[in-house]
Design goal:
Blueprint: H1 6-13, H2 17-24, H3 32-44, H4 51-55, E1 63-68, H5 74-89, E2 93-98, H6 103-115, E3 120-123, H7 133-140, E4 145-148, E5 158-162, H8 164-177, E6 183-187, H9 193-208, E7 218-220, H10 228-236, E8 244-247, H11 250-262, E9 272-277, E10 290-293, H12 296-311, E11 322-325, E12 328-330, H13 339-346, H14 350-355, H15 357-363
Parallel strand pairs: 1-2, 1-3, 3-4, 4-5, 5-11, 6-7, 6-8, 8-9, 9-10
Antiparallel strand pairs: 10-12
Helix pairs in contact: 1-2, 1-3, 5-12, 8-9
Region (Disordered): 345-364
Keywords: DNA-binding, Transcription, Transcription regulation
Biased composition (Basic and acidic residues): 351-364
């Protein structure tokens, strides 16, 4: 395969090599139209930067370390796709580590990444991580760090996350508007940022509709393979059992679906189920799973852009802050109206159906 260089792009567009170089780096000195033409030409010629040549121009290795809890998790695999796409186009290569939800392994991963002289770190914290002192020490030494998805408020670094509060609020509101009153929430460790934000959204939706928050309906799990069944048993044994489940992760959503079916509970006639996932087979499940989708690939792309901007100390690098990316609620069969409510709606007067259908459902 023929290899094209910056000189080829410059010759193709009849501009200088320095202009091409600055455009490829995203320099603020180059106008947007020129950047667009350069990027299109680079794509057409299949131009790719040479990380080794680039590293010779400075002290950097043109490598970034990415540490995630588990690559097999669909959210993280999609986020990594986004990270690699941006890194590749900007002349960086990616070294990926898995913490396997272990704090000790996470620390070891960071040490290993630094021993390889990466230029910066992208991290999503493990479920065991509550102490981020080791990261603060690295940050204080000037190591560029960006956190994504699972983040810590104790670090003054850029964070890129889904809008967990609004996503959880939308999921809970959707269940309420489908006539559900006793909504159980299955989530993960309480100290994780995503847990706190999704729990807050769940509570806010209950409050909006005048429903009392009941701690007995909330269960915190780890990442064990067989833990969902006992949680479902405990919840269904309550004096007033839940009529809906809102789960805060892919694993919990699938585990809850399996546990409910094993206990001969019909979804959604007996209970509704909605997840907070990026599960790519959600619509193929039986019943198809309603879910709040996180923009995993976009989160990875934005996180990588922010980190590389920090590494390169760009003149217009974004200030430290939290970037929240919108989620999307997709309603499927697992939260459709139960048959008895559908029958009640079918016999309602036209005035009731047209005026306030949501209030009508809530009053049943």
């Amino acid at each position: 395969m023929e290899t094209f260089t910056i000189k080829d792009i410059a010759r193709e567009l009849n501009i200088s090599t320095s202009t091409v170089s600055r455009a490829l780096r995203g320099s603020y000195e180059i106008n947007p139209e020129t950047k667009r033409l350069v990027m299109e030409c680079a794509e057409r010629l299949n131009y790719r930067p040479n990380p080794i040549a680039l590293s010779l121009k400075g002290s950097g290795t043109r490598a970034i370390g990415v540490i995630v809890p588990q690559i097999a998790n669909y959210f993280f695999s999609q986020a990594i796709n986004g990270i690699e796409a941006i890194a590749y186009n900007r002349g960086y290569h990616v070294i990926i580590f898995q913490s396997h939800e272990s704090y000790e392994r996470e620390v070891a991963n960071v040490e290993q990444a630094m021993s390889r002289r990466v230029d910066g770190l992208l991290l999503s914290l493990s479920s065991e991580t509550s102490d981020v002192t080791y990261l603060r020490e690295l940050h204080d030494k000037g190591v560029p760090i960006v956190l994504f998805d699972r983040v810590s408020s104790e670090l003054e670094v850029t964070k890129v996350v889904a809008d967990n509060f609004k996503g959880a609020f939308a999921a809970t509101e959707h269940l309420i508007q489908s006539g559900r009153r006793r909504i159980a929430h299955l989530t993960i460790q309480p100290w994780l940022s995503i847990t706190q934000e999704r729990l807050a959204g769940y509570r806010a939706a209950l409050e909006k509709y005048g429903l009392t928050y009941d701690e007995n309906l909330v269960r915190y799990g780890t990442f064990g393979p067989n833990e969902v069944g006992p949680m479902v048993d405990e919840l269904m044994a309550l004096p007033v059992a839940p009529d809906a489940f809102f789960t805060a992760s892919d694993r919990l959503a699938v585990g809850c679906l399996t546990a409910l079916r094993q206990r001969n509970l019909t979804i959604p006639d007996d209970v509704s189920l909605i997840g907070f996932t990026n599960l790519n087979v959600a619509e193929l499940l039986s019943p198809s799973l309603s879910t709040v989708v996180q923009p995993a690939q976009e989160i990875g792309q934005v996180a990588a852009e922010r980190l590389i901007d920090l590494i390169e100390r760009k003149h217009r690098a974004q200030p430290v802050g939290t970037v929240r990316i919108a989620t999307e609620l997709i309603a499927r069969d697992s939260t459709r109206l139960p048959e008895h409510i559908m029958a009640r709606l079918a016999t309602a007067s036209p005035e009731d159906q047209k005026s306030k259908p949501r209030d009508f459902v809530l009053s049943i």
